[in-house]
Each structure stands twice: as C-alpha cells, then as structure tokens.
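USER:
Before I trust my own judgement here, I would like a peer's view. Write it directly below this note and I will take it from there.

ASSISTANT:
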Amino acid sequence: MTDTGLTRLTAAAMSDRLRDGDLSSRELVEAHLALADRENPALNAWLALDGAGARDAADDADARLAVARDEGAAALASLHPLCGVPVGLKDLVSVRGGQCTAGSRILAGYVSPYDAHITERLRDAGAVILGKLNMDEFAMGSSTEHSAYGPTANPWDLGRVPGGSSGGSAASVAAGHVPLSIGTDTGGSIRQPAALCGIVGLKPTYGRVSRYGIVAFASSLDQIGPFARDAAMLLHAVAGRDERDSTSAPLPVPDDLLHLPATDDEAAGYLRGLRLGIPHEYFVAGMEPGVEARVREAVAALAAAGAEIVDVSLPHTDYGLATYYIVAPAEASANLARYDGIRFGHAVRDGDVLANYLATRGSGFGAEVKRRIMLGTYALSAGYYDAYYLKAQKVRTLIKADFDAAFGAGIDALVAPTSPSVAWPFGAKLDDPVAMYLSDACTLPVSMAGLPGISIPAGLSDGLPVGLQLIGPAWSELALFRLARAYEAITADASWRVLEPPGLAALRAPAGIVP
C-alpha cells in the first residue's frame, strides 16, 4: 500500500494491521509525518510536528506489539487498540518538554513541565503523539481565524474556515494527516468544526474526561473529546477518573466502546424501537436551506430504519447564546488573570510592575480574547454580578431542565443540526462578532447543560459537509456512538461517503523535511 493509502486507513484498520504484524507503527508514523509536513504550509493545521518524539514512540509501540505477538493472543488482546496509532493534540494539552501555546502569543516559548492526564493515558495506551494542532486563541472562536499563528484552512475548500476553536484538530483528521485527534469543546468547539470538516467529533459529558493539564478557558464548560472517523476507541483511552481533577467523575468507562457493531446489519438494528426527539428550536432562523434539507433527510432515513420520531420542545434554547456569553467570558476573565508576564510565557519588562503587566497582556492577547475578558470582568463586577452572572446561572438550570424533561419523557436521544451553515469564507464574519457567535447556536445549549453530543457527517450542501448532531442524557456516550454507527450503516451506500475533500488537490507540494 502506498503512503497515501496508509493515511486513509481508519484507526481501527490500522490497529488490526499492527496486531497482525503486516504493518509497523514506524511505517504509519513516517507516512503521516511526511503528508503533514508536505501539506501543512497551505493548511496550517499543525503548530508543531514532533518527528523525533513520534519516531521514538512508534519504535516503542512496535516493540510492545512484537512482544505481545510472541506471547500469544491473550497478550495481544491486553494491548489497547490505540497502541502504535498516531494521534494529534490541540495545542492546549500539556506534553512534558513540549510547547503549549493555546494559540496565543502570551504563551509563546512556554514549555510544559508535565503531562496532562490525557497525555499520560495516551502514552499508557501506546498511542503515538505526532504534534500540536492549531486553534483559536485560548479556544475563543468558531473559525480558527483567532489563532495568533494564522488561520487553518478547511480541506474541503482552502478559502474557507474549518470551524473552531479546534479547527486544526478537525482539519488534520479530514486531510488524513492523522487518523485521530484531541480537541476541546466549551460551547461547540469539537462538534462545529467536525461538522464543517465532514468528520466525527464528540463532546463527552462534563466530567467524563479529566481536565488536568488542559489550558483553561471556562472551567465549568470545558471538556476534552475525540475527532476521527472512528472516535470511540480514543474516548475509551482518555476517559476515566483522575484524582487531580475534582470535576472528574468516578464512573467506569464502558469497554463496549471498543466493540461497536462490525456489520452494517447489526448496527442498523439498533434503531428499531428507539425514540428520537426533534427539537424545533434547533432549526434556527437563518439556517441555510441546504443544511436543513440534509438534516431532514437524515431524520427521514432514521425513521425508515425503524426509529420513532417525536417532535419535542426545549423552550429555553433561545436563551442559550446569551447565557453562554455571560458565563463563559466571566470564567475566562478569572482563568486568564494568571497570564501576567511574571511567571511564564510572553513578558514585557521595560517599565514598572504595573506598566509591564498592562503591556504584557496588551501585546500578548488578541482582540477576541480581550473582548471576552472585558465582557466577563464587567459581568462579575460589583453591582452587576446579580443582574448578569447569577441570573445566567439560573437560566442555565432551566436549559438543563428542558433536556431532563425530554429524556424523562422517554426520548432516547435528540437529533438536530450541528451548525446552521456550512463552512464560510475567510473573513466573512470577522467584523461581526455576534454573527460569529450565532454559528454555535445549535451547540451551546448542550454545553450549558453538561450533556454529551456528537456530530456526524450527513451529506453535502453546495459541495461542503453538513453535520448531524446527536444529543443524549448524561453518561450516554456509548449509546450515542451506537446511534452514530447505526446512521453510518443505513447511509453506507450514499455517494457522498466516498468523496475526498477536494481542497486537498491543491496541497501537492515538494516534500519537505520533518523536524
């Protein structure tokens, strides 16, 4: 198989071939590094490729696999399926000895002294970390245009955004630079870029994955999750209790995440008898007709396969956007107070302490981060806390109650659009922050409620991907993956499933040298 062929394998197929011994992790890593290095100048998905570290990790994984093959089937079965499989990390995940910029100049030059919890889990599983991926600064944005290191392009059209804030994580998977990547979702930053790039992206239940070692944006909302074409095995590797994170839930991680139905017939059978709710509030004003059409077609396909479709109402959905943009900036203003030029990262030292502090933050933070810090500081200020932040938290409770009522009435999952539009051209929303914020209207309420949601490909509109969002009750990630797998099965013959992102044709350039 050619190097290009290796980079189009799913993670599950890579895992099977690694265990069989007809493919080495080193071969996989070399193929992915070469592709990423060659195409990244145009895509700008990667902020750093760690060629040396990835090769060492691949060699270690090959050694583990060789020992297990010698010891027999039980030893092979004891290895995690991710052993030897390449993974990319959003550049707010701490990796000992590596950069962690969070897409900001204020952390330029910062080297992490420790591993995040999920980094430890990935190393334990034998996964190979290829490098760090581009993102909106401190995860604040919906297009990855707010990265201090330049925007990431969408592999489907290099003149359009990949979504955000985890745009680099989504684009790298869509381009085949890596089969799996890690993103974070505060208000939709996994699901929305997954939709715009035509891949799978899961926001787990708040607390399912430890946030230890993740650069914080809004602590009551941030959650780590996987991007992939088969994401369940990555969630299995990183989820679970971590005593260093008090919000990490002491719940077992289902091993069945590694055993989703292998055949389309078995997968499709999961739909029979399911009650799926369609919240009319998610078909927002201004939704592109092509997006709504693809989502309605997906709902019809689910119904034809045996699911019961029920119209439901989530009446406080319309307050999700306003509530989020009080709570999240307020928490951001507190979390980002630590970036003062004294302890780490970018620093200006030309004046007294106060002058240096103001100059450091003024030159280190970008416009969107400053905007949200100001909003959050205002909402928390004396005289406004009760009117804004406290009231927003009360509305947040009502938003969660809407979901609880729907699931309590026997709805197994909700089905909705992920994004009201397909990927838009660079610059189209930069001068109108509110228009940018509205792009997350379908994902914000789920985040406010702390619930799991997954975006899966549902066809194309005007030649660009459309995402279908599946929302479940707390801790229902396994059920959501089964539902996603069922939809994949009933649309297996759809012509759009075999299409490659056409923007990649423009990314052919002379091979460079991987650092």
In short: Confidence is low (pLDDT under 50) at residues 509-515. The first strand starts at residue 46 and ends at 49. Residues 3-314+405-507 form a domain with the Amidase signature (AS) enzymes fold (CATH 3.90.1300.10).
